[in-house]
Design goal:
By secondary structure, the chain is of the alpha+beta class. Helices cover 47% and strands 8% of the residues. It is built from 22 helices and twelve strands. Strands 4-2-5-3-10 form a five-stranded mixed sheet. Strands 7-6-8 form a three-stranded antiparallel sheet. A hairpin with a 5-residue loop joins strand 6 and strand 7. Helix 10 crosses helix 12 and helix 16 crosses helix 22. The protein is flat and about 80 Å long. The chain starts with 5 loop residues before the first strand and ends in a 13-residue tail after the last helix.
Length: 537
C-alpha cells in the first residue's frame, strides 16, 4: 500500500514523537561520514533517494527507537509504524539535521557546493556554513551573507550574492524533500520477515542465517536485545567477535545436535522457558570454548582464528563434559590446531560440522574428531615448503603466534610477555618485518618475500625507532647479546651471518625450517608449556 509522501522535516518530527520505530532485527547504525554527506548532497540536488518502507501491524514486536532519539511521554499522536527499509537514511538525516542533535555536524560550502563533516580547519574559510543552522532557520539568508562578509573583510559583489542566496534557498529545501512512503500492512510475521531479509540482502537469495535471525527476533520478543546482544558484548570485551548468527548456530547445536539452520523450526514449537533453557546450555558451552581457546590455545582474539566454526564442536563438547583431564586437553588442542590449520570448515562447512558433532556424541570423541580432520595417510606435521610464499593471511601464521605464546615470547625491546590482554595501545601486539620493507624494496626483493611469514615477527606497538631502516645485523645483534632467548622464542636463526641484507634469501630458508619444526612440535605436543586446564565451568 502506498502512503502519502513525507517531507524530511515531517519524518524527523514523526521520529521525535515515536511514530517511526525500528524492529530488533534492524542492524545498528553503520553509515560513515562520506555516506551521510553524499545523501544530503543528493537531496540538495533533488536526486532520487529511494523510498521508505514502513510496516503497519496491530501486533507490535519488540522495537527500539532510532539511535539518538529521546521520545517525550505523551507525544505519540498515532499508531507507530516500523522501519523495514530506510533506517540508515533516516538515522543519518535525524542526526545531521535535527536542531539539537550533536552527532553529525554537516557543513556546506557556498562556493563549490560541496558537503563535508565539520573539521576545525573549515573555520579558515567563511564560505563553509552549518547545514543544520540553515535548515532550522537560525538566521536569515541575508544575515548569513553579512556574517560571511564580516569574516572575509570585504563585500560580496551583487552577482555572487544572488548566486549564494539561490544556493541557500536550495539548501533550505532539503527539509522539504519528499520521500515516497510505502506501508506494508500485515500481522503475518513470516511475510514481514521474508520481506525484510529480501530488502536488506539486495534481492539476492536468502541466507538461512538471516531469515532465522529475523524470525528469532520477531517470534521471541526481547531475545535478541536482552540476551544475544548482551552475550555478543561480553565476547567482544574478550576480543571475540561472535555475532548473532554464530550464537544461533550454537543454539541449534545445543537443542538438536545438528548444525543446519533449518532445524531451528523445531524451536518454534517450544515455549519461551524451553528456549531459555536451551540457550543457557548453549551459552555455557560457548563460554567454555572461548575461554579454552584464549587460555589454553593462546589465541586472545578471534582475529587469529582462520574460522570461527571450529568453536562450535568445542562448545558442544564442553556442554556435555564438566571437566577435562590433561590427556583430553592435549587431544582437544591438537584437534583444534589441526582443524584450523588444514581448513576443516573451508568447504561444505555444515557437512563437516555435523560429522564432528556426531563424533562428539560417540564414546571416543577426540579420536573420531581427528579421523574426520586428517586424511588416512596424513601426518600431524608441517614442512618448510609450506612456508614458502606464505603470507600473514595463511593459516600457518596464527600457528606461529601460538608457538610464540607457548614459548613465553617477550617483546624484543621492552621485555614484556606478548599478549593482547594488556592496557594501552603501546603494549598491543603488532606484526613487524625482521628485514625492514624499505631496505628490501631498495634491493628489488619480491613483495611476496618481503611479506612472507618467515620475515614477520610479533612485537609490541611502535618499535619503529628501534628498527626503522636499520639492518637486522645491527639491531638483532644488540638483542642477541643481552637476550638471545627473545629471538629463539620466535624461531629466528641465530647465525649472525644470515642477518645481512645480501643473505636475506638464506635467512628466509633457514627460518622456514625453524618455523616448520616449531609448528610441528606445537601440533604434536600442544599442551607442552604451562597450559591451564579447565576443570569445571
Amino acid at each position: 500500500m502506498i502512503g502519502h509522501p513525507l517531507k524530511v522535516r515531517e519524518l524527523i518530527e514523526a521520529i521525535d514523537r515515536g511514530e517511526i520505530l525500528l524492529p530488533e532485527i534492524q542492524r545498528a547504525y553503520v553509515w560513515k561520514g562520506p555516506q551521510v554527506t553524499k545523501l544530503i548532497d543528493s537531496l540538495y540536488r533533488d536526486y532520487p533517494s529511494g523510498q521508505i518502507l514502513l510496516w503497519d501491524t496491530a501486533d507490535l514486536p519488540v522495537t527500539k527507537v532510532i539511535e539518538g532519539v529521546e521520545i517525550q511521554p505523551g507525544s505519540q499522536n498515532g499508531h507507530p509504524k516500523i522501519v523495514l527499509d530506510g533506517q540508515q537514511r533516516l538515522t543519518s538525516l535525524y542526526k545531521a539535521l535535527r536542531e539539537d542533535a550533536k552527532d553529525l555536524e554537516v557543513y556546506f560550502h557556498l562556493g563549490n557546493e560541496q558537503f563535508q563533516l565539520y573539521l576545525a580547519r573549515l573555520k579558515a574559510d567563511p564560505l563553509w556554513i552549518s547545514v543544520r543552522d540553515v535548515l532550522n532557520n537560525k538566521k536569515t539568508d541575508l544575515k548569513t551573507l553579512r556574517e560571511i562578509e564580516g569574516k572575509l573583510g570585504t563585500n560580496i559583489d551583487d552577482d555572487m550574492k544572488d548566486v549564494y542566496l539561490d544556493r541557500l534557498q536550495r539548501l533550505r529545501r532539503v527539509g522539504d524533500y519528499k520521500y515516497p512512503i510505502e506501508i506494508f500492512k500485515t500481522d503475518d510475521y513470516n511475510q514481514v520477515t521474508e520481506l525484510f531479509v529480501r530488502i536488506n540482502s539486495g534481492g539476492t537469495r536468502l541466507r538461512a542465517a538471516e531469515l532465522v535471525l529475523a524470525q528469532l527476533a520477531l517470534r521471541l520478543p526481547g531475545a535478541l536485545v536482552d540476551t544475544f546482544e548482551k552475550a555478543i558484548d561480553e565476547y567482544d570485551e574478550l576480543g571475540y567477535e561472535l555475532d548473532a548468527r554464530f550464537l544461533i548456530r550454537a543454539l541449534i547445536v545445543s537443542g538438536t545436535g545438528q548444525s543446519r539452520f533449518r532445524y531451528l523450526s523445531d524451536f518454534w514449537k517450544k515455549d519461551s522457558e524451553e528456549f531459555r533453557k536451551v540457550w543457557q546450555r548453549a551459552k555455557r558451552g560457548v563460554d567454555t570454548a572461548v575461554n579454552f581457546v584464549r587460555q589454553n590455545a593462546g589465541f586472545e582474539s578471534s582475529d587469529w582464528l582462520p574460522s570461527l566454526n571450529a568453536l562450535i564442536p568445542l562448545a558442544a563438547y564442553f556442554e556435555r563434559h564438566n571437566a577435562i583431564t590433561g590427556d583430553i586437553e592435549h587431544g582437544l588442542l591438537q584437534w583444534f590446531y589441526v582443524a584450523s590449520l588444514r581448513g576443516r570448515y573451508s568447504s561444505a562447512a555444515e557437512t563437516a560440522m555435523d560429522e564432528d558433532l556426531k563424533a562428539i556424541q560417540s564414546e571416543d570423541p577426540i579420536s573420531k574428531l581427528m579421523r574426520n580432520t586428517l586424511g588416512p595417510d596424513e601426518k600431524i606435521e608441517v614442512s618448510a615448503d609450506e612456508f614458502d610464499d606464505a603470507g600473514w593471511k595463511n593459516p600457518l601464521f596464527p600457528m606461529t603466534y601460538a608457538v610464540a605464546k607457548k614459548r613465553g615470547a617477550k617483546d624484543w625491546f621492552k621485555g614484556m610477555a606478548l599478549s593482547q590482554d594488556v592496557a594501552g595501545e603501546d603494549h598491543q601486539v603488532e606484526i613487524h618485518r625482521i628485514f625492514p620493507k624499505a631496505l628490501l624494496k631498495e634491493r628489488g626483493e619480491r613483495r611476496k618475500d618481503i611479506d612472507e611469514i618467515a620475515n614477520l615477527a610479533f612485537l609490541m606497538a611502535r618499535p619503529n625507532k628501534q628498527i626503522n631502516k636499520r639492518e637486522p645485523l645491527e639491531y638483532l645483534s644488540e638483542i642477541a647479546d643481552e637476550h638471545p632467548d627473545r629471538l629463539i622464542a620466535q624461531s629466528v636463526p641465530m647465525e649472525r651471518r644470515l642477518w645481512t641484507l645480501d643473505k636475506f634469501q638464506e635467512f628466509l630458508a633457514a627460518r622456514r625450517q625453524l618455523l616448520a619444526k616449531a609448528v610441528t612440535d606445537l601440533l604434536q605436543n600442544p599442551a607442552c608449556r604451562s597450559s591451564r586446564v579447565l576443570v569445571e565451568r
